[in-house]
Amino acid sequence: MTTEGHFGADSPTEDLTGVPGRGAWNGSEDTSVYPTMVFEGPQPEVRQRRRIPARLLIMAWVALLMAAVLILVNVVTWSALTTRNAERVDGALTQEIGEFQEFAAIGVDPGTGEPFTDVSTLVRVHLERQYPDEAEILFGWVEGTTTAGGGAGGAPGGAETPAGRIRQGQEPPFDLSADPEAVTAILEDPNARGTADTPAGPVQWEKIRVLAPGGEGASGWFVIGYFTEADEDTVTSTMQTIALVSLIGLLVASTAAWWVAGRILAPVRLIRQTAAYITEEDLTRRIDVSGRDDIAALAEQFNSMLDRLEGAFTSQRRFVDDAGHELRTPITIVRGHLELMGDDPEERREVVRLVTDELDRMARIVEDLLLLAKSQQPDFLRPEEVSLAELTSDIDAKVRRLGDRDWRLESVAEGVSRLDPQRVTQAVVQLAANAVRHTAPGSTLRVGSTLSGSDVLFWVTDEGPGIPAEEHGRIFERFSRGGGAARGDRGAGLGLAIVRAIAETHHGRVDLRSAPGAGSTFTLVIPTTAGKEHV
Predict the structure, then answer these.
(1) How many whole angstroms separate alpha carbon 339 and alpha carbon 250?
(2) How far is Cα 253 from Cα 63, in angstroms, rounded to an integer?
(3) 99 contacts: CB under 8 Å, gap ≥ 6
(4) Which tens digit of pLDDT belongs to each residue from 90-109?
(5) Where are the alpha helices (DSSP H) in 375-420?
(6) For the HAMP domain, which residue ranges apply (predicted)?
(7) Arithmetic mean of pLDDT, 321-344
(8) Among the listed residues 453, 460, 378, the one whose alpha carbon sits nearest the alpha carbon of residue 420
């Protein structure tokens, strides 16, 4: 881009200093013409932002949600399994201690029916009647030595009862009672429950103090231990299986989400591809709609939008072509007269008159084109509550000035309607002007208004040549003239198009009843509530 103030002979920017009237702004002698900025070389391409495909986003969100759910399931399952193991161990310890307390409270040897006289016999007899679980160990420990008298449960003949451990039952994972250090640690622990480490894994234990029957003799301990390593291994194995299944499920769910998202988004991709191929010159491509879901509804709306765009571009192209043709004629006429104009004053006055007439016609065409363009805007109408009788009287007074005709007011509607009085007047006056243009002086022209159901009708009837049925629709198009147009009619063919635009913006219509040789009746039909949407 060049912005220098001085240019060489090869500069692509035109030097304006030598052109009269262009070297400085006419309104100020101190204002200079700024040099034109010229872009040189190809314009840089706008970098497009990298976009993440919607299919990938959907799959990622599904996978993330699935992973969160599976993690939660794994955590809850692990918590439930460990809690259940802890409850099972606690129940086993409590049950064994309770059974021993109940047995000791009875204090009678079931085999002999005699009361126990020493701790060793009590513990031994109880252990003989127990069937511990594979992960349990039951043993007793007697402190010191005692001499028990003969009798049931005691050492026969008053022999000494040896101190130390008493264990019965099947072989446990590890004989905790045979490990003096472990036994000492358990018995000297101030707590009734605890955990000890063994070669077979951790063991949870509970102990209870056993006093000698009758308060005489050596005391002891009853200990129950539960090895938890097997249960922990079961929990670990179960969690590994669940984690593996969760991982496989996550992969399957992600794959399924990718496939389903692809199926769902296929119409969206087709819409994007169709939009990429659509140009102003080719709006004929459409999307095949299948299904009844939201995507199908989107495709239908997209096709409807393309229909509207195609119609709008077609109308615009035709409008531009017609406008160019209509404006080209007066421009050619003006240029031709100006090029051939001589020095004779009379000839100059005639040329000026003709040029002025053509320029006026061009101005009318431009005004009509602007009016038609504005009719598509929401502020085209300014509706208000209008007395139909007063509006009809005003229209009748205005159309009588259009020409020397036998004007007759046939009917006047009574009541109030919401509409734009200026636009309605403009439309009816336009219809009356067309009637004047296609009738002879002195012809009868009838105007009027009436209420018909929920519509208000304004009409203009003439005694002109009439309009063939095949032209009834065409004459309302832009730049269209009926086959019966009067000789010398230089209208642009926009009048009836403006009338139709005014009627349609009121959500109404224009009806035509005509036949060759029978005159014509144009009726403006407007709903009485037409202006509510434009408030």
Answers:
(1) 85
(2) 7
(3) 130
(4) 999 999 999 999 999 988 98
(5) 388-399
(6) 262-314
(7) 76
(8) 378
DSSP 445: E
Confidence of residue 482 (pLDDT cuts 50, 70, 90): low
Cβ distance 79 to 238 under 8 Å?
Answer: no
User: Is 431 in a helix, a strand, or coil?
Assistant: helix
Residue 509, SS3?
A: strand
Identity (one letter) of the amino acid at 227?
Answer: F
3-state secondary structure 302-367: HHHHHHHHHHHHHHHHHHHHHHHHHHHHHHHHHHHHHHHCCCCHHHHHHHHHHHHHHHHHHHHHHH
Q: Tens digits of per-residue pLDDT, 441-457? A: 989 999 999 998 889 99
Report pTM.
0.51
Helices assigned H by DSSP within 406-507: 421-437, 495-505
What's residue 535's pLDDT?
A: 40
CB atoms near residue 409 (< 10 Å): 16
Rounded Cα distance, 138 and 135, in Å: 10
* Cα angle: 344, vertex 345, 348; to 5 degrees: 90
pLDDT at res. 490: 53
| Structure tokens, 415 | 């009541």
- What would the two tokens of residue 342 be? 């001589």
Structure tokens at 210: 């056993």
- Mean model confidence pLDDT for the chain: 80
Query: Which residue type does 159 have?
Result: A
